[in-house]
């Protein structure tokens, strides 16, 4: 009887690719299953074998793919190099420096530091400048938490002089209702929860003055719910009473006002206050909606001060004054001016003039002025990254005493205090001594 020839296939995967292990015994080269055949060519016995297959030589790519393979290997090498450069801890100074850097970072987190803090400068004993910092403070302990604190530091050395922890738990979510308020006469207060604390620098101390300052106010008979400084302008702070009213309190005149009463008094439509007198001040012009091509100018102006009571701060910006409020067109009679007549009356401005005609200022701000000097900061040019400058002017003539560039990358100063050695300027908890000759000393950080 004739026989039909058929290929032997793996009973597991069906592959005809096999290796003979002995008589009628095979191993599939595809799935490594071993099997053998009975002599009747009908029964097939299967033994699964899961050992790792022997290594097979890698196929050689055709010649036309060599170039693509080389490019692929180069790209993978470049990516590996970038990964190592950016994500691998940098080692400086030999083995183990990566862990040293991590330890240093952990140590930095454990150092005393201020969070959500506000600062002012005050004259201390012998007119030596003192930096007052109020905010959340974390101490040395590994388990220390942020606590509401007021600290006083020597602004020339950074040495701590006094520290007071305020009573009461700080609110959750890392928020704080602690505020620092400095009045026009230098009096400095800390508002926290529903209490008022006065800060002195000679000697450094913090005292609760809530009852002494607010105890006699009839409008506060229901009690104080909370305190705030609002925009921190003027000699006032806000009081929210337990019966749901918001009042403005002026510590220098010891009076509370409703919003309507405050507006009337600020615009001289209410009862006058004793102690008002004519003062001289300085201000930079602002860019208004009109005449934006006009340069920023430094003005000096005279105004009648309201003795620490409600007042309106003048805002100087070039615009068209039509003599009142309403809807006007350019055909209506008007005058180009820096301060409208109605605004001059509201802010009690008596006169003003350009203090430094012809000079250009870029992003300027006033730091300090008195009868002798005007200290200001500005950018060297209109370019956003140009150096920050500090400039001192003669307050009578406008002559430039010095112009000093701040260190690269340093923040713009927002604090300044004159003392017998010159000035101290700073931002946050960092201060710099500045001589009357314009020499800038090293940075001092209060910790």
Q: What's the helix count?
A: 5
**How far is the first residue's CA from the last residue's CA?**
106 Å
Give the % helix. Answer: 10-25%
Q: How many strands?
A: 29
Outline: elongated
Uncertain parts: 1-5, 39-67, 82-97
Overview in brief:
By secondary structure, this protein is mostly beta strands. It contains five helices and 29 strands. Residues 1-5, 39-67 and 82-97 have low confidence and may be disordered.
Write structural notes for this entry:
With 447 residues, the chain is mainly beta. Among the domains are: 1-52, no CATH class; 110-257, no CATH class. It is built from five helices and 29 strands. The protein has helices at residues 66-87, 97-110, 210-214, 259-266, 341-346; strands at residues 18-22, 25-28, 34-37, 44-47, 113-123, 129-138, 147-154, 160-165, 178-182, 188-192, 195-201, 204-208, 224-228, 237-241, 246-250, 255-257, 278-284, 298-304, 319-321, 335-337, 349-354, 362-369, 373-379, 388-394, 400-405, 415-419, 422-427, 430-434, 444-445. Strands 1-2-3-4 form a four-stranded antiparallel beta sheet, with no helix packed on it. A four-stranded antiparallel beta sheet has the order 5-6-7-8, with no helix packed on it. It is elongated. The protein starts with 17 loop residues before the first strand and ends with a strand.
